[in-house]
Amino acid sequence: MTTEPAKILIVDDDPGIRNLVLRFLSRKYKVRDAADGKTAMTIFPEFQPDLVILDVNLPDALGYNLCEQMQSNTDVFVLMLTSRTDEADKEKGFSQGADDYLTKPFALKELEWRVGAILKRQRSVIPSPPKRLTIRNLAIDVEKREVTVNDQLISLTTLEFDLLYFLATNPGRVLRREELIKEVWEYEYTGEQRIVDVHIGQIRRKIEIDPSQVPMIQTVRGVGYKFIIPDQE
After folding, report:
1. Distance between CA atoms of residues 199 and 91, nearest Å
2. Helices and strands in the chain, H and E counts
3. Cβ(156)–Cβ(75) below 8 Å
4. Which of 124, 208, 98 is nearest to 164 (CA)?
5. Radius of gyration from C-alpha coordinates of the chain
6. How far apart are CA 226 and CA 133, in angstroms?
7. Lower CB count within 10 Å: N or C terminus of the chain?
8. Cα–Cα dist 115/8, whole Å
9. Which of 101, 94, 140, 93 lies closest to 117 in space, CA to CA?
10. Where are the beta strands (DSSP E) in the chain?
11. Is the omega angle on the peptide bond into residue 105 within 30 degrees of 0, that is, cis?
């Protein structure tokens, strides 16, 4: 049985970088490329990539906005590829759905490593039991990869869903940021661990809609986070 290679869309207005990455990744993956946002959004629905390597600064669009558009009705992974190094820029990218962030200049082997780690998450088998978690007013449907609060569908990115699911299936356990990165991002991330805080903040804003109730995701100062099932607490 032959497994189809993953599909990757490279969006970068620098022809040198774009062609270099395309040639490098084409050895292992099915790859297409675009030099601007308009072309990318034309290719995207037809190509249906598993991963988009997306530059932040494009001649006709911001990568942040493209990331949000692409993930509005798909589970595509997005790796931001950019020359921006400000923490605020990275936070914005992660808050709008980016799964990883690689700063130019970069080594091709590091790109390969990060791409492989992201795609590995997609191909991981989620344990079958339980297929649905119901905690207070929160429901997590593993098969449909859907989350509802008070029976209202909540929009989560792929990474947010994986992070929430991991927390919810380890209730009461204090999870360090580095452990969350290893288990959810699935590689030894050596960069700023603040990316965990950004994603946790996004999840909280979406599921913790009643301020009178005890938050299910609690911060353990100086360590990380733990998920509380209120009835058990």
Report:
1. 9
2. 8, 12
3. no
4. 208
5. 18
6. 17
7. N
8. 9
9. 101
10. 7-11, 30-34, 51-55, 77-82, 100-103, 132-135, 138-141, 146-149, 152-154, 175-176, 217-220, 224-227
11. yes
Question: Residues 81-135: pLDDT tens digits?
Answer: 877 666 666 666 676 778 888 888 899 999 999 999 888 875 444 444 457 888 8
| CATH class for the region spanning 132-227 | mainly alpha
Cis preceding-peptide flag for 129 (omega within 30 of 0): no
212's tokens: 């009178």
Residues in the chain: 233
**Topology, domain 7-123:** Rossmann fold (3.40.50)
Burial (Cβ within 10 Å: 0-12, 13-18, ≥19) of residue 195: buried
| Tokens of residue 74, six digits | 């798909």
Least Cα distance to 93 among 122, 55, 61, 121 occurs for 55
Domain ranges of the chain: 7-123, 132-227
pTM over 0.85: no
